[in-house]
Fold this sequence. Notes:
Largest sheet: 8 strands, mixed
Number of domains: 2
Oligomer: single chain
Order of helices and strands: HEEEEHEEHHEHHHEEEHEEEHHHEEE
Shape: globular
Distance between the termini: 92 Å
Amino acid sequence: MIPRIVIRVGLLLCCLGCLGILTSCWDTKDINKRLMPVVMGVCKNGDQPYKIILQVPSPQKKGSQYLEGEAQTINKAIDEIRTKSEKSVDLLHLRLFLICEKTAKNNINDIVNYGVQANDISVKGLVGIVRGDFEKTMHHKIQSNPELSSYDFFSEQAGWTPDNTIKRLWEVFRDINSYTQDMAIPILSKGTDTLYNFEGSAIMRRDKMVGDISPDETLIYNTFQRKYTGGTIEVSQNSSVLIKKATISHKVKWTVVGPSMQSRMKLEVVIAENRDILSDDDIAKLLKEDIEKKAEKLINRLHTYKADALGIGQYFRRIMTESQMKNWKKQWFPQMKHEVTVDITILNNIYFKSSNKMKSRPGTSPESK
């Protein structure tokens, strides 16, 4: 016979468990009563309030719905949008944060801190900077589903190429608070035949934009970051190669005169076009000279900006004192000697078109096919 006290305790625990389940169910809102933005645009000019634009997929309109709010703080602007909206606004599905260039040149720290600290925003969202008219770019439409194109522009499974940088919200937060690493954030403008035009990358020193680099320099930047898949480099006006594999190694040392680094980049490429009928050796030589020249130009520009966007300081952390680490960007990085050597391996040049004719395999002729 089971004691009555045991039965009563069991019933009480069962009731408490049911109450917990019912509470969570009551908090769940009907998906038809929710708005789930995928893009958030943020802009602030000087002492003016924050301008927030949310882009929401709208199957009924076969496009997007836009929600806007203005306030002195981001949180207040979001609350204003929620107050005006007839449905609940859920930020959990935000995938892209677009910041106007004026705000980026001033300070993005408040925006990044808000995104990281908000419980309903994913830190995996991508970050971009808008050049030109902010509102026109946010409202720009090309096709029936512009909200998908906004994200696919950065997606490695869709429209991304190594000429573009990719930066997620948590990475931006990390680099803002790092002594030895800065970042590059993609710059966008309103497109004509596409949703966006890629204008290169913004070089950030902590939380401020201090300069920019071209798409060609961005490709070199991404190679340093080991993001190279599918990158195309023009060797001459009529010749280009496709990067198949890239590896990079570094040797660092710290002497009495300061830090120095030797970087060795090894590229395996396939010739995509060769209308000038250059030999493999000529293409390899031209490509080597071109990349080394662009790398030197990029590094010198970063030294001028005092912005370690390549994350060079990470390789020196183990041999730096705490004082040297804190002064890395201002004192040591701008005077660092950095030599980049490039080795090119051409895998093959069999399958490419030259003068509208396909080169045949060795030992065969067009007549034998």
